[in-house]
């Protein structure tokens, strides 16, 4: 054994040295993963490049960006997209099998949908009359009718949908995606949430958790703020010229970096440094992005902005398109806490659908017309579904055992129904898809292996899907 080899044995090997002395075959297999992991690691810590810099995916991606249309409260699957003729036939009869535990109170007999269903498109998808505009786009949509979750309460279910955990504070999926891929527009945040909810987990639904601060969702407005008034704050400075701002910022950053050099790694300070830089860059990009005054009347009508009922959500959807078009990686729009119909199902689901139907249909049409739908993944859904049994005389209780979500664009098969529920829509029974599976599939479409997208925290490698999740390959093109 030569002296060179002895020198390696007498001290701990670095990972690079270990690979150098290992077989060529092993090094070849590991190289691609190493380069990808190091590219992500290089965005964290002193001397790092911008955390939002574009990073390579693990493998070729079919989607580049995500728009999440969040229906807070839990839309009823049996009143929207999961047609159940036996529910209509057996209206008023007892449920013929054991019901699961529910969160609110005892539910009663089967309750038929107040809305009629029809088949649409070449795919023949069933859609209720709640969504006359969206029904014209079913051939672009992949319906997942066998979704299920682990929590029947809004707070836990919202966290599970957004972060993969219903009990602990974890990074949101938007944060994980931005951490994994960066953003294509270095003058904007990688993750923006428009008019987000402030209840049922609040900002934990869009926080970066233990990931570095730049990956957190940037809220634009909040629940209760009209979309027309939702703006990114503090991005205009009419008092200080831009060159003076740059000088002030450079000096401030110099002080911060001196502090960082003396104190050692400090995630909060590093995040503050990056946030100042991003805020400075946003001054030139964000004002124009938020200004929709140059959109044509045809476009405004397409999104329902000409109608007082659909105007608010229409503005959110139009902003989602504008932000995605300009390179923001993950955009969420929220129809906030309106779908929780324990009572007044007919009245309130009708109102809710009227508010979102045309804007969502307009968004799908606009993305396709601009050539964006093919690499933009659109996701629609809430935190759970509703019971096919009645709560009171005209309501439905929470039901995490079965509900429908749908996706469009971004590499999913259009005009497809995946999975199914029982004859009444109470349980997912065929090809069940848990939130962990949904997250794994979304990451896969973006070119990310959910088992390899990890972050070391508190001595453990965490991931969005924790120790669960399977990619639903059957819905992929």
First-last Cα distance: 54 Å
Main sheet: strands, sense, barrel? 9 strands, mixed
Number of helices: 12
Number of separate strands? 17
CATH fold type? Alkaline Phosphatase, subunit A
Proportion of helical residues: 25-40%
What is the count of distinct domains? 1
CATH class: Alpha Beta
Quick one: overall form? globular
CATH architecture: 3-Layer(aba) Sandwich
Spell the H/E element sequence.
HHHEHEEEHHEEHHHHEHEEEEEEEEHEE
Fourth CATH level, the homologous superfamily: Alkaline Phosphatase, subunit A
Structural class comes to alpha/beta
Average pLDDT taken over every residue: 90
**Into which percentage range does the β-strand content fall?**
5-15%
Low-confidence stretches: 4-9, 21-36
Structure description:
The protein has 477 residues and is α/β, with parallel strands linked by helices. It has one domain (65-234, 290-475): Alkaline Phosphatase, subunit A (3-Layer(aba) Sandwich), CATH 3.40.720.10. 33% of the residues lie in helices and 14% in strands. It contains 12 helices and 17 strands. It has helices spanning 3-9, 15-21, 24-41, 85-89, 154-163, 173-181, 242-263, 267-290, 297-302, 311-325, 345-369, 435-445; strands at residues 65-71, 117-120, 125-128, 141-148, 191-194, 218-220, 330-335, 376-381, 385-386, 398-399, 403-408, 416-418, 420-421, 428-430, 433-434, 455-457, 460-462. Strands 1, 4, 5, 6, 7, 8, 11, 12 and 15 form a 9-stranded mixed beta sheet that branches. A two-stranded antiparallel sheet has the order 2-3. The chain has a two-stranded antiparallel ribbon with strand order 9-10. A hairpin with a 6-residue loop joins strand 13 and strand 14 (428-430). Helix 7 runs antiparallel to helix 8 and helix 10 runs parallel beside helix 11. The model is unreliable at 4-9 and 21-36 (pLDDT under 50).
